[in-house]
Design brief:
295 residues; alpha+beta; 5 helices; 27% helix; elongated; disordered N terminus
Length: 295
């Protein structure tokens, strides 16, 4: 359990004891000071001392007939997530923001909803944070998940991915260093895909190369652009020769030593044995899996 959940849990037992004993006379001067109430303050069942309200995601009481977990803060509603039933879990009431719309703060940060914005305000009141407007802040593209370098042998497939956040929404293009136009061009073994998400105001794009060739090696760039600016991220595809060509190249270098240097021979030798080692490892693991399945 989180700290907030633990506090709500123990506070619930305290409320049950108070209900059993009766509320008694209210003495406001004895109420403890409130500190760090990120979702504001609420009155407990006895209605005497103010207490911190529950934050988004914390368990809560669905109605006033039950007093155990506590009440949600301003702008939050206590709801049951019936989707838990689909996964075999017992649904638990949790505080959920009543407004799902994103908002823009005076710090030019986009908040998922007004409830998270209010948390930020209560976290540090000295910043004088105010609400600029409803909806996300306008922002240049930010690549939140860049493509990664890939090492693969020819004949295999490879996929680069790129996720971009921006408002207004950004468009994604893929480029290869040295190319005069963006991909895929007229190349049938290269394809581009894109979709919205997975997070709000984000778009994800993929570059797929089927049956990579040695000429496909190089740097690939994800470029994102909207009306405010652009951003880019680069990844490298290292595509050595396949195992058959590597073996042939090694034989060729041994019989024609005057056409290559010792450093090139060493490089080919290392790459060849790395590829062969990976192939042997995969074969060994497959055989062990079969033996374990048979047993």
């Amino acid at each position: 359990l989180s700290v907030h959940s633990s506090l709500s849990f123990h506070r619930g037992w305290q409320w049950l004891l108070e209900e059993a004993e009766g509320c008694g006379q209210c003495q406001p001067e004895l109420c403890p000071p409130l500190l760090g109430c990120l979702a504001g303050a609420v009155l407990p069942p006895c209605g005497c001392c103010w207490e911190c309200a529950n934050l988004e995601g914390q368990m809560c009481d669905l109605d006033d007939t039950s007093h155990f977990y506590g009440r949600c803060g301003a702008g939050l509603e206590c709801r049951l997530d019936l989707g838990d039933l689909l996964h075999g879990h017992v649904p638990e009431p949790q505080c959920v923001c009543s407004s799902p719309e994103a908002v823009c703060g005076s710090d030019n940060n986009t908040y998922p909803h007004v409830c998270s914005f209010q948390e930020a305000v209560n976290t540090n009141s000295s910043t004088n944070l105010t609400l600029a407007h409803s909806g996300p802040c306008q922002a240049v593209p930010q690549i939140v998940s860049p493509p990664y370098d890939v090492w693969n042998v020819t004949g295999e497939d490879v996929i680069f991915g790129c996720e971009v956040f921006a408002y207004p929404m950004a468009s994604i293009e893929w480029w290869k260093d040295g190319a005069e136009t963006f991909l895929p061009g007229d190349d049938p073994h290269i394809s581009i895909q894109a979709r919205g998400g997975p997070r709000r105001y984000a778009v994800s794009g993929w570059l797929q190369i089927q049956g990579i060739r040695s000429s496909d090696g190089g740097q690939y760039q994800c470029r994102a652009r909207n009306q405010l600016g652009e951003a880019s991220a680069t990844a490298r595809l290292t595509s050595p020769l396949n195992s058959h060509t590597l073996r042939h190249s090694l034989t060729h270098t041994h019989t024609h030593t005057h056409t290559t240097t010792s450093e090139q021979n060493l490089h080919l030798y290392i790459v060849f044995h790395v590829v062969m080692g990976l192939s042997y490892y995969c074969s060994l693991m497959w055989q062990m899996t079969r033996l374990l399945s048979a047993a």
